[in-house]
Amino acid sequence: MPSFTSSSEIPVTGRPLPECALGIAAIVALVVTLVATAAWELQWRNFGATPSYKNSDGLWAIERRRIDNGEGDKTVIIGSSRMFFDTQLSAWERVTGERPIQLSLEGTSPMKALQQLADDPDLTGTLVVGVTPILFFNGFAYRGDVFDHYLDEAPSQRIGQQVSMIFEPLLGFYQPDFALFTVLERQPWPTRDGVPVRKDVRKLANFDSDRNGRLWKKVETDPEYLALVKEIWSQNFRPLDKLPPPVLQQQTKNRAEQLELAVAAVEKLHARGVRVVFVRPPSEGPFAETEAVFQPRAEAWDQLIERTGAHGIHFADHPGLQGGWLPEWSHLAGDDADRYTTELAQLYHDLPPPP
């Protein structure tokens, strides 16, 4: 009869595990990590990075919940990056005595926010809406996922946001643009012939814990970086004298749809006693030229103000809102943003009260 031997009876042979001083190994690992982190931080500090809060979905949700938690009687700002970076909350506060809630989103039409706030009875104050014509009248939402994040944010995500905010004001490299894999992806790797290479938008601004955004100083002071930003923007421009008719027809169709949405949302807000103020921030160069063709003022801005019955502040109508430096044609340099906001806040302050 065959016999079977239990595996527990099989002798264990082979080399014994070497003794390891785990404490020393842990110290070495810690030292290596700290040295590598310090070197990475120094690299980006030399590049011009300074600590800044991340402009994350979680940070937006924190500010959005302020309306839910009893601050709905304040001034709330929505819009795209121009309204975000050009409007300096401290300058606004010096004029009006109130620091607004900043809910603007870069590359994103404020239409979704306008509709959501129109249905939120907690908002009872004033809504200031930035109008970047190409985005506003097309409804484009680069950061549209933020609204679902606000509604569905899990407790673990809220905790993670709070933990992250401990380190954000301390580390210059702790930003999406400086993540290792992002840096590797942006290297000039070989490409296939005939395959165009499209460059992603780079870091443009720094942010405070309440989402006050300000154009990054490097955009103003580093000619090479500024040229890169302009090159990235230029990827979106097309020869205006060679636009096929369907392109302009689609712009007209989109504008009509967005105007209807705006009228409906403002009607709800006005019925609830919320004052709405539309603001058209400055632009120049290719941006201004494209906006004038795609969304002419008479057919876009003027119709928005007339049909909604809301207040409107257009930079072209007020000398105090003009003359600032827009390094990359779309956002004001820091000092000019302070001056611009002071003038804008005064115009806002002097508007007639709601009926």
Q: Quick one: CATH superfamily of the domain at 71-146 and 211-349?
A: SGNH hydrolase
| Contiguous runs where pLDDT drops below 50 for at least 5 residues | none
What would the CATH topology of the domain at 71-146 and 211-349 be? Rossmann fold
Instruction: Name the CATH class of the domain at 71-146 and 211-349.
Output: Alpha Beta
Structural class: alpha/beta
Strand portion, in percent?
Answer: 5-15%
Shape: globular
The total count of strands amounts to 7
Q: What about the largest sheet?
A: 5 strands, parallel
The separation of the N and C termini measures 104 Å
Order of strands in the sheet with most strands: 2-1-3-6-7
Helix proportion range: 40-55%
- The average pLDDT is 93
Assigned CATH architecture of the domain at 71-146 and 211-349: 3-Layer(aba) Sandwich
Q: So how many helices?
A: 15
**Cα-atom Rg, whole angstroms?**
26 Å
Draw up the topology in text.
Elements: H1 22-47, H2 57-71, E1 75-78, H3 81-86, H4 89-96, E2 101-102, H5 111-118, E3 126-130, H6 133-136, H7 145-152, H8 155-167, H9 180-185, E4 205-207, E5 213-215, H10 217-221, H11 223-234, H12 245-271, E6 275-280, H13 285-294, H14 301-308, E7 311-314, H15 334-349
Parallel strand pairs: 1-2, 1-3, 3-6, 6-7
Antiparallel strand pairs: 4-5
